[in-house]
Every structure is written in C-alpha cells, then in structure tokens.
Amino acid sequence: MNWLDEGALYSQISVFLREDLGRGDITSQAIVARNTRARGRFVAGEKMVVAGLEAAEEVFISLDSQAQLEAFVADGEEIEAGKVIARMVGFADVLLAGEQVALNLLQQLSAVATLTNRFVRAVEGTGAAIVDSRNTTPGMRMLERYAVLLGGGRCSRFGLDDGVLVTSNHLAIAGGVADAVKNAKERVGHLHKIKVQVSSEIDLREAISNGADMLLLEGLPVEEVVRLTAVTRNLSSVVSIECSGNITLQNVRAYAEAGANTISIGALMKSARAMTVTFQIQPF
User: Fold this and answer.
1) For residue 32, what are the contacts with CB-CB under 8 A and spacing of at least 6?
2) What is the largest CA-CA distance in the chain?
3) Cβ of 73: how many Cβ atoms within 10 Å?
4) Quick check: pTM over 0.90?
C-alpha cells in the first residue's frame, strides 16, 4: 500500500529479525537440511479484520528475496475462523526463521484493525469518526496506524511535529488557555490548526474566543459533554469537538450522540488482544 513507507518498513523488519534471530536459528540449522523446500499457510483462528500481510511478506523477503507470498484475502478484509489467509513458498529454514516475527505482526496488526472496526461500527450513523492517538507501541507506530485505517478509523497527528495539541500540562506551564492559544497561533502559523484540551466552560469560552480550532474534552462524563457541546455550538459553528479518555465499546456511541465530531481512543493499540493466527509448515 502507498500509505506504508517501504524504506521504513524494511528497516523496521530488519530490526525485528535481528532481535529474534540473533546469530542464527540454531535449531533449524541442526535439524533441517540445506535447500529443503517448504510451504507455510497462515490460518485464522477466529473472526477478524486482516492487517499486516505486506509486513509479513517483507519478513520472508528480507531473509530470501525469492520467497513468494500468495494472499487469499486482502488487508482490511473481514474473515471467519478457519480461513487460509496466505501461503508462503520457499526454503524451509527461511520459513522457520521468519515464522514468529511474521505471526507477531499479523496477530497484533489484525487485532488493532479488528478492535478499530468494532468501535467504528458502534458509532455508525452518528457522523462521529474514530481516531487513534500517539499511544502506540514504540517502533510500531507506522504499522499500527496503518491497521487503524484498515479497520475504518482515522489517524490523528503522527508525532509531536505534526500538529498542535495544547494539553492541561501545557496550560499549567503557559499560565492559562488564552495565552497558550494566542502564542500557538502566532508562532506556528496559519497552516496548523490549534487543538486545546478544556475541562470547564470557562476554559472552553477562552479557547474559542482566542481562535482555537478544535476542543479536546478528556475524561468527562457524557452529560458534561452534552452541555459543553451545546455551549460550543452557540459560540461557533466551525469549532470541532473531540472526546477521549475512558471510552469503551459500551459507551462510545453515547459520546458520539453527545455531539463529538471525533473520538480518540488510545486503547485501539494498547488494549487490542492479539488475534489467533497459526502458521502451518509442510514439505513442498
């Protein structure tokens, strides 16, 4: 997919393989004859949204440029338990060496895509968008956010250099909402929107009057979100509202119906349970 930086993907996969292989797979070296050919099948153990096929393929290609992956589904496709996701054909020692790294990536990325898709379906019809956050696994940000897109979610700022978010900690240092928003607008320029975390009506009014483009309501009960959304709409028709904090599959629709334009969920990465996928190898 064009969304993935191929150079960055190759570099990350190389790091993952070095971590797992060390000086080599001594078990396979002791047991498997050189040039033995084999094929391996990735099989889904449960219903899921598939994500990570390109990353899994890159694992084996990094070990052997002639390795071939035949995919039977596409990234982003929802499948049932028992479905054969893809097949790899190559040298047996290569398949064995790359097996766990490829599985880890498929299991984790499919988990992120699947959980994201559940949240997206939970707010369907409300107009609210499910977005991720910077709560990613170190080293996995590009891949995990790609999985969010496959699940139907959207991506927020990629890093600290990719957008302005004035949090409560910034406000404590800056001396308040008004000064923080004014300084941000003056120093970062007109191309960046200013998002400000607010927790009260006073802060909300200050943020809007000083030119904030987006408001972040974090950890507030639904009833307060309803009230603050009404205040916002009376003051501005263009300021966007984002909710985050303590959002679950059980309450996400209530926040969407309360008026949130976007709902940011760090749990998309942090709480996604690895999906069950197996890799079954046979002589070829």
Assistant:
1) 92, 93, 96
2) 74
3) 16
4) yes
Domains held by the chain: number = 2
For residues 282 and 184, give the distance between their C-alpha atoms in angstroms, rounded to a whole number: 59
Determine the distance from the C-alpha atom of residue 219 to the mean position of all C-alpha atoms in its chain, rounded to a whole number.
Answer: 21
| pLDDT tens digits along 89-128 | 999 999 999 999 999 999 999 999 999 999 999 999 999 9
Structural domain that includes position 62 = 6-120+272-283
At 99, list the tokens. Answer: 């097996």
Residue-wise pLDDT tens digits, 50-65: 999 999 999 999 999 8
At 226, which CATH number? 3.20.20.70
Query: Are 167 and 189 members of one domain?
Result: yes
Based on DSSP, count helices (H) and strands (E) in the chain, helices before strands: 11, 12
138 in any annotated domain: no
Residue type, 119: F
Q: What angle do CA 145, 146, 151 make, to 5 degrees?
A: 95
Do 70 and 13 have their domain in common? yes
